[in-house]
Protein 1
Amino acid sequence: MTTPPDVHRARSRTFKPRRRRLSPTREAALERLLPQLGLEVIGPTLDPVEVFGRQAPLVIEIGCGAGEAALAMASADPSTDLIACDVHTPGIARLLTEIDRLGLTNLRVVHGDALDFAARLRPHSLDEVRIFFPDPWPKPRQRQRRLVRTDLLETIIGLMAVGGHLRIATDVDDYAEQIVEVCGAEPRLEGGPVPRPQERPITRFELKGLEAGRTVTDFSYRVRGDRD
Ligand SMILES: C[S@@+](CC[C@H](N)C(=O)[O-])C[C@H]1O[C@@H](n2cnc3c(N)ncnc32)[C@H](O)[C@@H]1O
């Protein structure tokens, strides 16, 4: 089993715990579907072939919310296997319901902290990592909670294959600056801001930002081939 780096033990949370009661329907969906479609946060090293029943490019989405992007992108690209992670229980319940309804076999769910789950992944095993609209943590003293920061980026890159794709989107201007700074300082990455990718759907969260007049920036980075 992969030993989690120290950062996993010492880090502060990248999400705000939100407590909201589930409707009885969502509660029932969670109970029925999580054992079928969910992956344990803590456990032995994951074997994606065992999980998905095939060898395919492996993608993880950190902070999938209600799974709108995960569902759209997994449906549009059945040749890729996607693991969508979030701590937000109502979102996970909705996502599970939709995976079941659509009969998707290339999408699995982690209900918990993606950074804890990261300890189950083999180094260099991910072909793509998606972080769409990470929690903004706007106050200066909250910046150490942001997902895209130097120590967590180290962890994420360590899990990614050479040539692997890191996609990020944010509607917070100074988060976009932080992404440019942190990813730009990482010699194993190349890339930067890109036009909005067609395949990334507009989520309800994104729509609210657009309606409030915020600007969305998408980023695309590749893990360089000349890494150590
Ligand atoms: C602002 S929401 C955006 C959700 C979604 N990506 C969208 O565009 O609608 C950010 C989400 O990231 C989740 N999140 C933050 N840190 C996380 C972590 N370490 N593991 C799993 N989920 C996380 C939060 O719970 C929240 O649902």
Note: Residues 14-15, 62-65, 85-88, 91, 113-115, 132-135, 147, 203, 205-206 surround S-adenosylmethionine (CB under 6 Å).
Protein 2
Amino acid sequence: MTSQAPSRLSELLARLAAVKGQARSQARAMSGEFYTSPDFAALERDRLFRTQWICIGHEGEVPAAGDYFTTELVGEPLLVVRSADGDIRVFSNVCRHRGSPVAQGAGNASRFVCSYHAWSYGLDGRLLAAPLMVESEVFKKKDCALTTLASERWYGYLFVNLDGQAAPLAPTLAAAIPHIRNYHPEQQHHVFCADEVWNTNWKSLVENFMEGYHLSPLHATTLHAVTPTALCEKLSDGPAFTGYRSNFHPDCPERGPFSGDLTRQEQRSDVFYCVYPSFVVGFCPHFTLYMCLRPLTTGTVGIRWGVTGMTADPQSPVVKDYVEFCKKFSAEDRMQLERLHIGLHSRHYVPGPLAPDAFEGTIWDFWQYISRALGTE
Ligand code: FES
Ligand SMILES: [Fe+2]
């Protein structure tokens, strides 16, 4: 019997570097350490999550002035606020006095008052008041606003760039628009949102969302009847995204209501996109399902997922039925990905070949991106 020795970080980076330019027909899965190494995860935090555009939610979560929610990204507390002018800003959720988070959870507020010493901030982040700060010579109210982070909205999705150095996001996604525009995501209503933590690596969930190979076997009683594996096809990718289409089984009933602009093919398929590194979205004729992923540890991923659609009422049966359907097949994915993460720790795991482009080509694209973004040589 032989066993594979655990590869070190340098070997993993060399393997990633080799992915660049390798023929797709030669594609093999990544080693377990790609998903389990704390050193590699630290590199991802620095070179992906602190430097790239990361989706942290949807504008539908903050529809009115004063609406806010808090989240975090690689340990950075964040505060997302709709201000009085209708703009949505992303702040560092850290008080400019001695560093306490100034807001918790989600809700509606006219100002944010830090629970520690009651410094208060407006919806635009400006410091409004700081009790008893009369003798300090270094205190200037105008210098103590919450730090505003670079943010961008794309079809209603909220992206943040922690280091403020990333090039604008929208132009990098322009090539995907022809496959998306007819769904009119900008007209859809935000009808459901939830936060979850799964015990798997964030990349495993990106890969799972973006490959159709598992649709028939894993989702035998849910998605197979709608979008069987055999009917999947790869869409063209770009430097910032990849995508695939899952065509409906001929026996699958119409899924509506949908936009009148959908072509017949769009009425009879779903399209899935990953905006690198960690935003995945599926455009179905009647609803859009999205997931904003954040690495918590190598083996845990924070998921903010939600649904938008042409139906406005979150309580309508068509919405409730679709959300329940999503929960059902997501439970199957979660069970599988948490099981997968156990297997990826094995020293006996020898990475196998990837399935053809139509089924797992998006995974190959994703790794090419990671290789580029990490600057592997
Ligand atoms: S840390 Fe916020 S007021 Fe002191
Ligand atoms: Fe799945």
Note: The two ends are 34 Å apart (CA to CA).
